[in-house]
Design the sequence.
């Protein structure tokens, strides 16, 4: 029997806080997103994990690192992966798992926020 992969998102950074399923970060800080996978059969975290932002593919791999985030980086992030069970007899079965992170980038206190910058994403 195939169970869909279970994904556990972890978000860290120098000004990151998690409150009720919403992750907040200060503008111009770093945000590190990791998607931990629990799956049988195992999933390759380097090639089978996909990151989406507001529904568009952003990155492939277990880690998403954003440096210098701005309010334009606020959005709905999702990591997704699939695994396939290929039994000796019968048809293959594929299970897909997803986990979401809602990121809100806030202006630092006593700091003027700009709207023209965007984060640098490193893979």
Sequence:
């Amino acid at each position: 029997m195939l169970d869909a992969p279970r994904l556990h998102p972890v978000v860290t950074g120098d000004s990151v806080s998690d409150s009720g399923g919403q992750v907040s970060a200060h503008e111009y800080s770093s945000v590190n997103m990791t998607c931990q996978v629990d799956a049988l059969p195992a999933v390759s975290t380097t090639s089978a994990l996909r990151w989406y932002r507001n529904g568009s593919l952003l990155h492939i791999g277990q880690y998403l690192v954003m440096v210098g985030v701005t309010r334009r980086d606020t959005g709905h992030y999702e990591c997704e992966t699939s695994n396939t069970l290929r039994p000796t007899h019968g048809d293959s079965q594929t299970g897909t798992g997803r986990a979401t992170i809602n990121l809100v980038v806030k202006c630092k206190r006593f700091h003027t926020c700009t709207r023209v910058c965007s984060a640098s994403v490193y893979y």
Observations:
- Strands lie at 6-13, 17-19, 22-26, 30-38, 50-53, 56-60, 63-67, 75-85, 93-106, 120-122.
